[in-house]
Amino acid sequence: MDSRDWQEPDAHAIAVNVLTQVTPGAIVIFHDSDETGKADRQPTVEALGLILPALKARGLRCVTVSELLAPSPPQTRSKLPGNRSNCPGGADNIEYNSGKNGLKVTRGR
C-alpha cells in the first residue's frame, strides 16, 4: 500500500493514511526522495514513530520481504536473545482511533 508520503503531507496525515488502510501481510511503501531530490522526508521519519508502535499494538510485526514471502513462517526477531520488539520505536502505551488527531503514543521502557 502507498503511504502517500510523496504528496508531502504532515506526519499525522501519513500515519492516519497508513493505519486506516494497512492489513496483515501488507507491504507499505515509503519514499526517500522525489524526482528533484529536494523533498523533505522529515514528516515520513516522524510518521514512522507513530506507525510502528501502533502496528505493534495491533499484533503486527515488521518483517523483510523475503520473510513475508517465505513458504513457512521464519523465526521472528523477538524470539532471539536481547531483542525487545520486532519493530523499532517500541512503545508501552498506544491509543489509536480513526478520528482527527487520533494517534497518541507514550513511551516508557
Structure description:
This protein has one domain (5-106). The protein starts with 10 loop residues before the first helix and ends with a strand. It has helices at 11-21, 42-57, 65-69, and strands at residues 93-96, 103-106. The protein is globular. With 109 residues, it is an alpha+beta fold. It contains three helices and two strands, in the order αααββ. It is 29% helix and 7% strand.
Considering the chains and any ligands shown, give keywords for the structure.
109 residues; two-stranded antiparallel sheet; single chain
Compile the SSE list and pairings.
Layout: H1 11-21, H2 42-57, H3 65-69, E1 93-96, E2 103-106
Antiparallel strand pairs: 1-2
Helix pairs in contact: 1-2
> Any idea how many domains?
1
Please bin the fraction of helical residues: 25-40%
What's the overall geometry? globular
Major β-sheet strand ordering: 1-2
Classification by helices and strands: alpha+beta
Low-confidence stretches: 77-109
Report mean pLDDT, rounded to a whole number.
Answer: 74
Tally the helices.
Answer: 3
Strand content: 5-15%
SSE succession:
HHHEE
Write down how many β-strands occur, each being a DSSP E stretch of 2 or more residues.
2
CA-atom Rg in angstroms: 15 Å
Q: What distance lies between the first and last C-alpha atoms, to the nearest angstrom? A: 31 Å
Main β-sheet description: 2 strands, antiparallel
